[in-house]
Amino acid sequence: MIHLGTIGKTSIDIDVSFFIVMGLFVATFYNRQMGLRYALLWVPVLFVSVLLHELAHAGAIAAFGYGGSQILLSGMGGVTMNQRRARPWHDMIISTAGPASSFVIAWLTTLAMQNFPLAASDPMLAAFLPLLRTANVWWGVFNMIPVSPLDGGHMVRDFFRIFLRDRTAFVISVWIAMIVGAMIVAFGIYIGFYFLSLLIAWYVWMAYQQWQHFRKNGYPGE
Question: What's the pLDDT score for residue 94?
Answer without folding.
Answer: 95
